[in-house]
Automatic annotation (TrEMBL):
It comes from the Eukaryota. PROSITE patterns: REELIN. CDD domains: Reeler. This is Reelin domain-containing protein. Residues 1-16 form the signal peptide. Residues 72-233 form the Reelin domain.
Length: 233
């Protein structure tokens, strides 16, 4: 009788160069790290957080030039809530110290927007939750499908969050500080004259320079018996 032992876990490196890059990296600058399953470690495809800064844009033969390699620090961020400019695009507007824009992640978002019900009535209250790993910042709105303006209002903000006004009173929710948050539940009240289905949409920033746009809830439909109008559905 044979017993097969299987170890399941994160891939660790079998081949790495802790004491310096190998000779083979001199031309293509690839470190040639390999996992234990002999697959190559691939380069990251997201924008690099590192910068290479040179003390001068001129040099002379035999001269010395200082080169600084370091992580780009954020020059512009909004630890106390999303700025007014983010109301339509949902872009936080973060910038690195070199004034380049921090771009959203292109990988699948680890966050979900969950709504307590798949339908609503005018004036009704719904619970909305941001589900996923810990995060620092966010901006969340209810919108008619295809529109860029928020509808309804939020109340009773949980700890470390606050309601803000983009178009009319408390129509958006955002962070009040950069403290870690997780699985927060928000309270939304539908407009009393609601005439269309809605969707909740959020930007969620795990940390200042790592954020995902277009985190969307399933569509929440206007309950039967209420007339729908316009091109929002």
């Amino acid at each position: 009788m044979y017993v097969l032992l299987v170890l399941v876990g994160a891939l660790s490196l079998c081949n790495a160069f802790p004491n310096g890059a190998p000779k083979a990296a001199c031309v293509n600058m690839t470190p040639h790290h390999i996992y234990f399953n002999l697959t190559r470690v691939q380069a990251q495809t997201t924008p690099s957080p590192y910068s290479v800064t040179v003390a001068s844009n001129l040099y002379t033969a035999g001269g010395t030039v200082k080169v600084l390699v370091g992580a780009l620090s954020l020059c512009s961020a909004y630890p106390n809530g999303a700025p007014k400019e983010a109301c339509v695009t949902m872009m936080p507007g973060h910038k690195y110290a070199n004034l380049t824009t921090v771009h959203p992640m292109t990988t699948a978002s680890p966050y979900q927007i969950m709504v307590a019900s798949n339908q609503y009535s005018p004036g009704a209250t719904l619970k909305v939750q941001i589900v996923g790993p810990q995060f620092e910042g966010f901006l969340l709105q209810a919108r008619h499908n295809g529109n860029t303006g928020p509808v309804g209002s939020f109340s009773n903000p949980p700890t470390n969050t606050k309601a803000v006004t983009c178009t009319s009173g408390s129509d958006s929710m955002t962070h009040a500080n950069p403290n870690a948050k997780q699985n927060i539940t928000l309270t939304w009240t539908a407009p009393t004259d609601a005439r269309a289905d809605v969707m909740f949409i959020a930007t969620v920033a795990q940390v200042k320079n790592v954020f995902w746009l277009n985190n969307k809830s399933p569509m929440v439909t206007l309950a039967q018996g209420h007339q729908k109008e316009g091109n929002h559905v």
